[in-house]
């Protein structure tokens, strides 16, 4: 069982509320989403593991059980070409839960016309493999988002 914690502080809103059909339809995988606080902040690793994919707007950490967790910072933020994002880790790095991976500013993303809503996805998982899914309410960085069995 892997506990996936929130990479951001904000409000949990669940995937159906994500303004993107690929995420809201859980086509990438099951999970939830965070509407982050609008201040410059750091997105942190949601599990202990290895950073296997790293872009300014998204990263994947794979834990010891082989569970890959995608954190996607905002919607359509790839179109910002990295502007406003600062990488604090590198692909291949071992990270611990809570370790900063990307620094970004959700308010600047919003000002650029993009949604700062950030999906947190269990890659290659099934919906019934997730439990204790948090889909509403305030959440602090590091608090549990879901359990993955």
TrEMBL record:
Keyword Transport listed: yes
GO terms for MF: kinase activity
Keyword terms: Kinase, Phosphotransferase system, Sugar transport, Transferase, Transport
Gene Ontology annotations for the cellular component aspect, listed alphabetically: cytoplasm
Pfam families per record: PTS_EIIA_1 (PF00358)
Protein localization: Cytoplasm
PTS EIIA type-1 domain residues: 20-124
Keyword presence, Transferase: yes
GO biological process, any: phosphoenolpyruvate-dependent sugar phosphotransferase system
Lineage top rank: taxon: Bacteria
Main location: cytoplasm
Protein name: PTS glucose transporter subunit IIA
